[in-house]
Specification:
The protein is globular, with a radius of gyration of 23 Å. The chain is built from two helices and nine strands; from the N terminus they run H-H-E-E-E-E-E-E-E-E-E. The chain has an eight-stranded antiparallel barrel. The chain has a single domain, classed as Beta Barrel (Lipocalin).
């Protein structure tokens, strides 16, 4: 009987030990999801002025144009836009007020932009800019 109780105690303690050693998954807060390199893969403007993103309004980036964002963990970042082989960098500070509903980008020496986050995932995010008279969207894809 003592051996049985000893074995049961050993099995229970072993289970507690192994459970406590299980590695937790990565932290997936909105900030950690946003941190990293992103590429603008599609853009859209609200051609029919219905304030909704319609599939026929989505366009792939034009030939010779690339747009990359680097969101650093310290909430600084860089946008690199290349047009016909000429890159231009824009430094910014970013924030996610209200968690994952909005993305604010404050460009150095320029105005700020507040994007509404339409879709938000670790791989693809769709941003809506309503600051102009015509709504516009950016679909960004995280680079691995």
């Amino acid at each position: 009987m003592k051996k049985l109780l000893l074995h049961i105690s050993f099995v229970c303690l072993s289970g507690v030990f192994f459970i406590s050693c299980v590695k937790k998954g990565p932290d997936t807060t909105p900030t950690t999801i946003m941190t990293g390199h992103w590429q603008v893969v599609q853009t859209a403007t609200d051609d029919n002025n219905n304030h909704q993103l319609d599939n026929e309004e989505l366009r792939n980036m034009a030939a010779g144009v690339t747009d990359y964002y680097l969101f650093n963990a310290n909430h600084t970042g860089t946008e690199e836009v290349t047009y016909n082989g000429t890159p231009t960098d824009y430094n910014f500070v970013w924030a996610l007020p209200n968690s994952s509903q909005f993305l604010q980008i404050f460009l150095e020496g320029h105005d700020s932009t507040t994007y509404h986050i339409v879709t938000f995932s670790p791989a693809n995010t769709t941003l809506l800019d309503t600051s102009q008279s015509i709504y516009s969207w950016k679909v960004i894809k995280k680079k691995s």
